[in-house]
Design a protein that fits this description.
Blueprint lengths: L2 E3 L7 E6 L13 H10 L4 E2 L20 E2 L2 E4 L6 E4 L11 H10 L3 E4 L13 H6 L5 E6 L12 H9 L5 E5 L12 E6 L4 H9 L3 E4 L4 E7 L2 E6 L4 E6 L3 E6 L3 E5 L2 H4 L6 E7 L5 E3 L3 E4 L1
Parallel strand pairs: 2-3, 3-4, 7-8, 8-9
Antiparallel strand pairs: 1-19, 2-10, 5-6, 6-7, 10-11, 11-18, 12-13, 13-16, 14-15, 14-17, 17-18, 17-19
One zinc ion binds next to loops.
Length: 293
């Protein structure tokens, strides 16, 4: 028999935020003040400004907003882009991306492979590189910016591919906003006990969050062999396991999945995750729950 490891807890408040945004400190069109005001006006709880190889110090802007500002950098030079959330310094953009991930992890940051399916080959991050690197905390399963660039905004297939190889990493949705029209395309909602940068970072690192392009998850948890999810606005909820296989589908805003015997017995299956589908292609993705013997 296996234990279903849920990263979620019964306590905490859901806080919505974007962990990928650019300003005039790199190639964004708006200064940090304007980007902060935009997200705050939309009711976001937290925001990470993440300019290319440039750390914008949130302390300069905390008096401006009640939003939690999480320091971040998008490590960009020298190779595929890597998000460093919880940055206290600019990590050297070493061409060896394993070295960058290791440094981020050593510094207690949250390391994410960004927009893996950007560009004409749909392989900004090659499969080989994604598979080789150990210790990522996450992968962008949705990057809003790529909607208006070559490639695919969604990358849940790469996520399932990596999870099925035994990599344990969380799925992140983000705007990657560079201008006004890029805002509120994809976000993360963390389950947190406090409204502080440290608490948000802790929730991200521990997978205590879900990712969304529009669907709101209200509760998600495990009770024995049952996985329970309720949403405000999903039309269809799917249970997915290794290699992206859809195990069960419920056409409702809530679902109770009884894990089938072949999953609970262990062996071939290593994780389950839940996809909540709503109107107009909106979705929410829970984090994987690992099936540990
Ligand atoms: Zn990028
Ligand atoms: Zn970016």
């Amino acid at each position: 028999m296996v234990t279903i490891r849920s990263p979620y807890e019964d306590s905490g408040t859901w806080l919505r935020g974007n962990v990928h945004a650019h300003t005039t400190e790199s190639d964004g069109t708006r200064p940090p003040e304007d980007v902060i005001d935009d997200y705050a006006a939309r009711g976001y709880d937290f925001l990470a400004l993440s300019d290319h190889d440039t750390l914008v110090d949130p302390d300069e802007y905390r008096s401006q907003t009640g939003m939690v500002l999480v320091p971040a950098v998008e490590v960009s030079a020298g190779g595929p882009h890597l998000q460093h959330v919880g940055a206290s310094t600019e990590v050297d953009p070493d061409e060896d991306r394993q070295a960058v991930v290791d440094t981020i992890d050593e510094n207690g940051g949250f390391a994410v492979a960004n927009h893996p399916k950007w560009l004409h080959e749909f392989e900004h991050w090659s499969r080989e590189e994604l598979s080789r690197i150990e210790g990522f905390d996450g992968i962008e399963i949705y990057n809003g910016l790529i909607q208006r660039h070559a490639g695919a905004a969604r990358a849940t297939d790469r996520w399932d591919w990596l999870l099925s190889q035994g990599h344990r990493l969380w799925g992140v949705a983000a705007d990657d906003s560079h201008r006004g029209g890029d805002v509120e395309e994809g976000w993360t909602v963390v389950q947190s006990d406090e409204r502080t940068p440290a608490a948000v970072l802790d929730a991200l690192r521990n997978g205590r969050f879900y990712s969304s392009t529009g669907v709101t998850v209200e509760t998600v948890g495990v009770d024995g062999n049952e996985l329970l999810v309720s949403t405000a606005d999903a039309d269809r909820i799917r249970l997915i396991s290794d290699h992206g296989v859809v195990q069960q589908t419920v056409d409702s805003s809530t679902a109770t999945f009884h894990l089938p015997e072949q999953l609970v017995r262990g062996g071939d299956h290593t994780y389950v995750r839940v996809e909540c589908l709503g109107r107009g292609g909106d979705a929410a993705w829970t984090q994987p729950m690992f099936l540990d013997s």
